[in-house]
Specification:
single chain; alpha/beta; Rossmann fold; Double Stranded RNA Binding Domain; 3 domains; 5-stranded parallel beta sheet; two-stranded antiparallel sheet; 9 helices; elongated; NAD(P)-binding-domain-containing protein
Length: 248
């Protein structure tokens, strides 16, 4: 039997963690911490930030001044800071203190990330692409952050410019379709899924990004109700005719 058969898995479960309304403790205020702050704010969480003022990065200062979701404490970490938090992120140079925070967090079953110390991390920050609702993460499980960044750059070059807007529009159309044809599972659910699949596979990304309210309504009335997917040309021609009649 080959050695490959006995090899322990080294990957991690990549998930989209919903942090909106959660409380995140960030210890440290330097450059690395500023990046963590940006990610957490983008996810909609509240932040308790603990760091002496003389160690604050310029970007960290701007976040403190501009966000009402950051509670800042100008001091060193105190174990009581762990009370009532849902996640802990450390980004400080003191390895002993960082690992102590990691151990305390795990004892309390609080997910923790200790910057630049993978063995004390319950999760990792990958190199991310974010365009509106579109998020793509490249992770090396903490082994090669720079390589993750280089790979992410190559992937980003291949992502269509209008991808974020297209996803927004498809999401709106999907919600309208669910209102028009409610139900979970069963025949109606399968038909909804197939109709959306046909739309996404036949329309170009740029065409999806340009969808407006009027065009969405027509796609549902004349497309979904007849169990067909109108082409971008059919939708746009109709819109032009409507505007022409209104102008006359």
């Amino acid at each position: 039997m080959s050695a490959q058969t006995h090899r322990e898995p080294e990957g991690s479960l990549l998930i989209a963690w919903q942090l909106k309304g959660k409380n995140v403790l960030i210890v440290g205020g330097g450059e690395v911490a500023s990046g963590r702050i940006q990610h957490v704010l983008d996810a909609g969480a509240a932040i308790t930030l603990v760091s002496p003022a003389d160690g604050l990065h310029t970007l960290t200062k701007s976040f403190i001044e501009s966000s009402d979701r950051i509670t800042y404490h100008d001091r060193e970490f105190n174990p009581s800071d762990l009370d009532g938090v849902d996640m802990v992120l450390t980004a400080i140079d003191d390895v002993v203190v960082s690992r102590d925070i990691g151990i305390r967090s795990r004892t309390l079953r609080i997910p923790v990330n200790v910057a630049d110390d993978p063995s004390y991390c319950d999760f990792y920050f990958g190199s991310q692409i974010r365009r509106g609702p579109l998020q793509i993460m490249v992770s090396t499980n903490g082994k090669g952050p720079k390589l993750a960044s280089l790979i992410r750059q190559r992937i980003e070059e291949a992502v269509p410019q209008g991808a974020g807007e297209a996803i927004e529009k498809v999401g709106l159309l999907r919600e309208r379709l669910k209102e028009r044809a409610p139900g979970v599972g069963g025949g109606i659910g399968r038909r909804r899924m197939q109709w959306m699949i046909n739309l996404c596979t036949t329309w170009e990304m740029d065409d999806l990004a340009r969808l407006d309210d009027e065009q969405m309504e027509r796609m549902l009335v004349e497309g979904w109700e007849k169990n067909i997917v109108l082409s971008p040309e059919e939708v746009r021609v109709h819109g032009s005719r409507v505007r022409s009649v209104e102008n006359n």
